[in-house]
Design a protein that fits this description.
Elements (H helix, E strand, L loop, with lengths): L2 H5 L11 E5 L4 H12 L3 E6 L2 H10 L6 E4 L5 H15 L2 E6 L14 H29 L2 E6 L12 H21 L4 E8 L5 H14 L3 H10 L9 H12 L10 E4 L8
Parallel strand pairs: 1-2, 1-4, 2-3, 4-5, 5-6, 6-7
Helix pairs in contact: 2-9, 4-5, 5-6
The structure holds NADP nicotinamide-adenine-dinucleotide phosphate.
The site of NADP nicotinamide-adenine-dinucleotide phosphate has 31 residues, from helix 2, strand 2, helix 5 and helix 7.
């Protein structure tokens, strides 16, 4: 019996019948992940604070039954209610992709408490909030996939983004601890760690470099791409394919890992 055939459902798509939530699905990496999971047959709920980008992503998804919910992942009770409402429409949440995040930079000595708290809250507490909301359902179902979009900044340090680095290192610590807790529950928990990826978030970093150094935007992008041994920016689809693979039946043994998608920039997860 082939693993591929064994892992498919009657529709022929491996994630058919699975309700997947992708946070931050209105742009960049989250949009690419939503497209990939829909391609693999999942039914999607897209989460973000702005409705128009979520609607735009939703319109591009293959398959049917998808929807979106406008919610802020930093609101512990609010996101739990939003995911509960989505589960009432599309069924128990089987796949959670904690992708929503933000990256702001400042030298450590000039990092305000507001910036520090903002980075910790959106990148780390937001991941906890969404996970906390879906975990009991996954444990009851004895099946689940949680993928946290961390960063190479969760594996190594970068100057001038200490709050972001601390938050993403926290996401990886959370991933590892949770993986041990749920290892016997049929749930896998992993982190995917992109390097510099061509998205609106990276555009913000490029604008910052341009403003602070007077260099051109192309020059700033070339410098960022040069940190990748492949000499290119990671594409959102590169990240999405790794996430899709982690969600497939047959990926059960990949658990508690932090997988760089960075062209070789960080060699060990
Ligand atoms: P992006 O295009 O800016 O996407 C971030 C998404 O998160 C947006 O759609 C945003 O939508 C949503 N979001 C932000 N705060 C939120 C909140 N409080 N509640 C709900 N949704 C929220 O950036 P991206 O590059 O695709 O980033 C996606 C993830 O990859 C992030 O976790 C980021 O740290 C990580 N990452 C990115 C790179 C890179 O170079 N681009 C590298 C490593 C890791 P709304 O504004 O509508 O809420």
């Amino acid at each position: 019996m082939s693993l591929t055939l064994d892992s498919k459902t009657e529709t022929g798509l491996p994630l058919s019948g699975r309700h997947a939530v992708v946070t931050g699905a209105g742009s960049g990496i989250g949009e690419a992940i939503a497209l990939e999971l829909a391609r693999l047959g999942a039914t999607l709920t897209l989460v973000g604070r702005r409705e128009a980008p979520l609607q735009a992503t939703c319109a591009k998804l293959t398959g049917s039954g998808h929807g979106h919910v406008v919610a802020d992942i930093t609101d512990h009770d609010g996101i739990a209610q939003a995911l509960d409402a989505a589960a009432k429409i599309r069924g128990p949440i089987a796949i959670l992709i904690n992708n929503a995040g933000a990256a702001k930079s400042a030298p450590a000595g000039k990092t305000s408490i507001e910036l520090w708290n903002e980075m910790l809250t959106v990148n780390l507490t937001g991941t906890f909030n969404c996970t906390r909301a879906v975990l009991p359902t996954m444990q009851a179902a004895r099946w689940g996939r949680i993928v946290n979009i961390a960063s190479t900044a969760g594996l190594v340090g970068y100057a001038y983004v200490s709050a972001y680095c601390a938050a993403k290192h926290g996401v990886i610590g959370f991933t590892r601890a949770l993986a041990l807790e749920v290892a016997k529950h049929g749930i896998t928990v992993n982190a995917v760690c992109p390097g510099y990826t061509d998205t609106p978030l990276l555009g913000g970093a490029v604008d910052n470099i341009v403003a602070k150094t007077g260099r051109s935007s192309d020059d700033a992008k070339t410098t960022l791409a040069a940190s990748n041994p492949q000499g290119r920016l990671v594409q959102p689809e590169d990240v999405a394919r790794a996430v899709g693979w982690l969600c497939l039946p047959g990926s059960e043994a990949i658990h508690g890992q932090s997988i760089p998608v960075a062209g070789g920039e960080v060699m060990a997860g």
